Amino acid sequence: MRALIVDDERHVREAIRLLVDWNAHGVEEVLEAQDVASAIERIGQEQPQVVFTDMIMPEKPGTDLLAWIREHAPLTKVIVISGHDDFDFVRKTVLYGGMDYILKPIDPEQLNQAVAKAVESRKQEDEGTKQEQRKAIEINQLRPVYWDKILTNLVEDPSYYSAIADTLRTEFGLSEDERLCRAAVLATDTIDPAIRSKFAGSEDLLYFSLLNICNEIVRKHRHGVAFRHEHGAIVILLWKQTGSAPALLDTVNDGIRRTFGSTLEFCLGGERPLPGGIRQSYHEANIVLRQRNMRAARPPIRCFDPEENPRLSAIHLSEFEDRMRTALRSGQEQPIKDIVRLWMNQVERMSYINTEQLELWNHEYSVIRARWLKELFGDLPAVPSASAESAFASVPVDLHGCLELPKLAERLERDLLRLSRQWMEHQRQDEHVIFEIVKYIDSHYAEEVTLQDLAERFFLSREYISRKFKQQFRENLSDYIERVRMEQAKLLLMNPQYRIAQVAELVGYKDEKYFSKVFKKLEGLSPNEYRKRER
């Protein structure tokens, strides 16, 4: 915090310097000026929070400084120090917002109290200003989110229009005279990867930049507004000169090209009555978006045509599921390449592939992949994620926005190969961990070995260990433990120095009778009978 002492008498300035406990008040720098003109200059340059001023000085009086501070630096706190007990001076001090009026000779206690009050007042105002600034920043950050929600509600339910009509008129210039509206949707699935790379993978930042360009043109003459639909699409809602909407979108595209070096696709719904037709026009724009032929070059602006209704014969990925699973289980690269090539041969015969077909493949593959993960990896904790991005999640397109089928095939093949390698590695680990469990049992058969103990020791589920053990050895884990114990018991029974109770305890049975019962069940003889027979 800074303070400025304004007085034409040097000894008065020095007295104020000596009498104020600057450190106690948090004042780090004390400046001086000998007249009003130099004080104004220093205030403009240094912006002190507290100013001490005399009332009578050469050339201009202190009241002129008070008036200037009130107009140009209203947050500055002023303490008047004067040798004149003049009511007019006191009145003007109050009028111009002075904090205190102290008479000379200066009382140190009174002066420090005045400084403390001025500093505290300034701190409170600064904190209030910071809070207001933070609040303004938060509001500005939330405004786009707020309008995205409001406009999403409007296109989904035009009856919402009556509740926000006044706000739309104030904010966007949508007057009661407007009779028609039109909606356009930006095709984000064919954005050039080079554009996306400029934003380091941040889709939010990319969309923010695109919306700024759209709104800079659309809102310039209050033709409409661009916003982000809650489902992720960028939507442009127009209500002025809707008949020339394609030309306006061309202008928007030109702005995008100048910024990013590439144009994008806009799908435009028909002209519909406002407000009831907002939803219909938006729905038509989405129809255009979903019916684009991704295998052919397309104009950057496509309008809804009610006569266009292509009937497509879909190719289902599920028809190839069994053969893909077999190829995946083989662990070999060639069978996987062969099945992907077989699927691609059929796909390449399709002259028309639209977004709906791509969404169908994406959905089918996600379901199939999740099913494979369950079948191949079971409930093993460390398995490939079912939520990993599907090979069909994004659309590989060339510079003209056309679907690149070879790249789509590469993605599918790469994902199948990755799953196959993970499956083979899982099989190796599977066998390894089961044999580790067997090795542990063989070394600790005399202890109380339970399925829960093994699960905790090897970080696997009880169900997984039980199922995999049965698959590997064709017997239950509990049966194996009993068999190992009985084999060791038969060796110990050959030594006549061990009593039956001792043998039972050495192989993990605390109850001799229960040991004898289990032994007879497995060997057909009691422990004593076995010992006599072997002798």
Automatic annotation (TrEMBL):
<dbReference type="InterPro" id="IPR018060">
    <property type="entry name" value="HTH_AraC"/>
</dbReference>
<keyword id="KW-0804">Transcription</keyword>
<dbReference type="InterPro" id="IPR009057">
    <property type="entry name" value="Homeodomain-like_sf"/>
</dbReference>
<dbReference type="Pfam" id="PF12833">
    <property type="entry name" value="HTH_18"/>
</dbReference>
<feature type="domain" description="Response regulatory">
    <location>
        <begin position="2"/>
        <end position="119"/>
    </location>
</feature>
<dbReference type="InterPro" id="IPR041522">
    <property type="entry name" value="CdaR_GGDEF"/>
</dbReference>
<keyword id="KW-0597">Phosphoprotein</keyword>
<feature type="modified residue" description="4-aspartylphosphate">
    <location>
        <position position="54"/>
    </location>
</feature>
<dbReference type="InterPro" id="IPR018062">
    <property type="entry name" value="HTH_AraC-typ_CS"/>
</dbReference>
<dbReference type="Pfam" id="PF00072">
    <property type="entry name" value="Response_reg"/>
</dbReference>
<feature type="domain" description="HTH araC/xylS-type">
    <location>
        <begin position="435"/>
        <end position="533"/>
    </location>
</feature>
<dbReference type="InterPro" id="IPR011006">
    <property type="entry name" value="CheY-like_superfamily"/>
</dbReference>
<keyword id="KW-0238">DNA-binding</keyword>
<dbReference type="InterPro" id="IPR020449">
    <property type="entry name" value="Tscrpt_reg_AraC-type_HTH"/>
</dbReference>
<dbReference type="Pfam" id="PF17853">
    <property type="entry name" value="GGDEF_2"/>
</dbReference>
<dbReference type="InterPro" id="IPR001789">
    <property type="entry name" value="Sig_transdc_resp-reg_receiver"/>
</dbReference>
<keyword id="KW-0805">Transcription regulation</keyword>
<protein>
    <submittedName>
        <fullName>Response regulator</fullName>
    </submittedName>
</protein>
